[in-house]
Q: What sequence folds into this?
């Protein structure tokens, strides 16, 4: 098979799978979007657009729609135009529920522009209050980086020391021998990626196990000057206890195979609780670190995050109970009460929109069925008229009920019933998935389940975009850097669609952020 034939077959498969995906998206009520920018080794800028939705079987789906070249400058209006073009191409411009982006200023401009465009068409729920979603992992990263600034000198010391050891196998062997003599169970060091705070946390947590080895190795190798003091190691240990909480949060909210929007509120509460307590710690160092983190926390989460709160309410384990428990800790008393009322009011607004849509669909279905009935009876007009003029016993009984005003109408809505029932407590040890619960209760909550389907599919991080960039780095490498932008999009999007079709998963959601260094076996 020639290169040209192989390329043509790949493009044919791409177009075929694109048609299938378009048909699938036509049957979806609303979709949620994540997007981000990436620059390849070709120095070409790409935008990835990923679509998230829940299908009729209550399975969470994600598909890469576009991996396209966006020439600079990357202003907000250019990003907005590129996204709008993508939505029109896929026929989903009226199905967009939310877009998750990082905190770049250009993204803020793009989201405002798109919100105005969609509001003009009245395609956004409640005027787009839930439209712009900020990547929570990115916010957490900014928050923790501020805190890590308090120990930046120590972090650099540990990082440079590990780099020195890794540069020579002989140094690692000597380091491993010392660790063996001290009977340490740890067998590896970690070298972080400085821009990834969680990899820095893992580096520090691993290095603490070898703090005595660092000192002893420094005695044997006078060129090894990167030996933290006892006070430095004490600071690292305290910092790691604090960062461990944030590392857990990042792991939870960075998943892509399960809903994350409903899981973040209890973790935000946990972060605020830990930071508040550490702000009055007796240790001057940890108090200063926590105060810096609190400042960033208040900047991004000082205002009520409606999506995060409403998604939590739609988790049957939480409902409004979690809101009333968390908000007094996250906000001041007056703000907590105000924000609880805001969440309840917004949830009712959203529910009312879905009720109106549900009722209009019922009317439309009745009109269609009546039209079909009239069409079928047109050939026997006179007979039909005579038969319909005769009132039957059931019709007479229904007329009596209506005249006596005894027809039973549901007193409570889906939403009222759901909120008044107690929270769901899953059996201990069993993994809970909110989508499974809603699938089992769809008939009970016919309208509210539609609300849950659209909101719970909202991703609160752009991790899926980073996953696609990792794949992009494997497709475009120094040995294959002449691929056209169209071919790159075909390879990345087509591979994603084929994997989804066959239920295959990538080996790793995101590239390995830190370098794990196994210590050699000491003699």
A:
């Amino acid at each position: 098979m020639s290169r040209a034939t192989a390329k043509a077959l790949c493009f044919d498969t791409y177009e075929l799978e694109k048609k299938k995906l378009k048909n699938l998206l036509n049957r979806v009520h609303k979709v949620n979007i994540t997007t981000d920018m990436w620059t390849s080794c070709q120095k070409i800028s790409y935008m990835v657009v990923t679509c998230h939705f829940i299908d009729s079987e209550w399975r969470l789906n994600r598909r890469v729609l576009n991996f396209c070249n966006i020439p600079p400058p990357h202003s907000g209006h250019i990003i907005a135009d590129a996204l709008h073009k993508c939505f029109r191409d896929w026929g989903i411009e009226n199905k967009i529920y939310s877009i998750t982006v990082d905190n770049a200023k250009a993204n803020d401009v793009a989201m405002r522009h798109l919100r105005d465009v969609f509001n003009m068409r009245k395609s956004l729920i409640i005027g787009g209050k839930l439209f712009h979603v900020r990547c929570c992992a990115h916010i957490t990263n900014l928050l923790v980086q501020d805190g890590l600034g308090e120990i930046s000198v120590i972090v650099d010391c540990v990082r440079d020391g590990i780099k020195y050891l890794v540069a020579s196998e002989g140094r690692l062997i000597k380091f491993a021998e010392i660790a063996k003599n001290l009977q340490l169970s740890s067998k590896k060091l970690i070298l972080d990626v400085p821009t990834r705070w969680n990899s820095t946390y893992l580096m520090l947590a691993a290095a603490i196990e070898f703090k005595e080895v660092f000192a002893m190795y420094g005695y044997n190798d006078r060129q090894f000057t990167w030996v933290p003091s006892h006070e430095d190691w004490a600071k690292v240990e305290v910092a790691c206890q604090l960062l461990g909480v944030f590392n857990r949060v990042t792991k939870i909210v960075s998943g892509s195979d399960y809903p994350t929007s409903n899981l973040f509120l209890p973790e935000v509460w946990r972060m605020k609780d830990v930071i508040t307590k550490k702000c009055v710690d007796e240790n001057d160092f940890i108090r200063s670190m926590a105060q810096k983190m609190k400042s960033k926390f208040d900047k991004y989460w000082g205002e009520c995050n409606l999506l995060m709160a409403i998604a939590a309410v739609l988790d049957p384990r939480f409902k409004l109970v979690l809101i009333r428990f968390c908000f007094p800790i996250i906000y001041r008393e007056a703000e907590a009460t105000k924000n609880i009322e805001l969440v309840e009011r917004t949830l009712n607004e959203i529910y009312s929109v879905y009720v109106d849509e549900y009722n209009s669909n019922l009317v439309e279905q009745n009109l269609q069925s009546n039209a079909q009935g009239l069409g079928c009876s047109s050939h026997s007009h006179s007979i039909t008229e005579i038969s319909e003029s005769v009132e039957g016993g059931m019709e007479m009984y229904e007329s009596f009920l209506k005249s006596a005003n005894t027809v039973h109408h549901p007193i409570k809505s889906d939403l009222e019933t759901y909120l008044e029932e107690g929270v769901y407590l899953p059996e201990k040890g069993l993994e809970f998935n909110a989508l499974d619960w809603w699938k089992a209760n769809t008939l009970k909550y016919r309208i509210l389940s539609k609300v849950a389907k659209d909101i719970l599919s909202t991703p609160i991080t752009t991790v899926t975009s980073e996953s696609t960039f990792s794949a992009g780095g494997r497709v475009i490498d120094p040995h294959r850097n002449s691929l056209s932008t169209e071919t790159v999009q075909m390879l990345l999007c087509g591979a994603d669609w084929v994997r989804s079709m066959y239920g295959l998963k990538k080996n790793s959601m995101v590239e390995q952020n830190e370098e794990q260094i196994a210590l050699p076996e000491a003699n």
Notes: The first strand starts at residue 31 and ends at 39.
